Every structure is written in C-alpha cells, then in structure tokens.
TrEMBL record:
GO terms for biological process: DNA transposition. Coiled coil: none annotated. PANTHER family: TRANSPOSASE FOR INSERTION SEQUENCE ELEMENT IS200. It comes from the Archaea. Pfam families: Y1_Tnp. This is Transposase. One of its GO terms (molecular function) is DNA binding. It comes from Halorubrum tropicale. Residues 8-124 form the Transposase IS200-like domain.
Amino acid sequence: MKTTRHATYNLNYHIVWLPKYRNSVLVNEVADRVRTILHEIADNKSVEILDLTVQPDHVHLFVSSPPKNEPALLANWFKGISSRKYNHRYADHDGEKIGWVRGYYAGTAGHVSSETVENYIQQHKEGDS
C-alpha cells in the first residue's frame, strides 16, 4: 500500500500503445532511449514503473500511480512527453522521429490476458488510428 497526504491506495495500470503506422521502429538504441525517457517521465511525475517492455511495434507499461492521476492522463503523459523528448534529443541526430498512434489500451491491475492485448494490436493493423 502507498499513501499520499489524504489517501491510502494501491492503483496499478497497464497501458499499451503503438508507434505511428505500426512500424517496428522500437529496436536497439531507439528502444533503449525510449525506456530511459519513460523512466524520466515517471520520476518527474512521481509515478512508479512496476514493469516496462518495449517491443519493436508496441510498448507495455505497468505503473503504480496516486489516485489524482487518471489512466487517460498517464497515457497522455507517457506518450506525449516521450515523443517530444525523443524527437527533441535525437531526431536531428538520427533523422528519424518517434510518433504514437492516437489510441491506447488501459487496464487496471489484475489479469490482463494476452488475447486482450493482441486484439488491441490487431485492430491497429488495418487502420492506424
């Protein structure tokens, strides 16, 4: 259990998102850079990363967050800040920018089946929304 000044909580969220156009760009140095940036964001926002997996074509983030941070806010922070930081630091150097699709998957702690995540990813194969 964690506490804030006015709350005791155990809120954990599983957030998954994809690179724009579902390109498999999150490999090698790019994946390492994205991981580092995501940890920086978590530290700055007082959010604990419980697990993080950067796959070539998607990111799995499992975080613990105080009650004031709703899942949509967390997804917007991690997606928006990470792409801005990455592009600011590395796009001029490497020439390739990182962008994310508009949507994301968010689930609360508990059992998230691989089928649920695969369905989300499959939906974006056809129509990169």
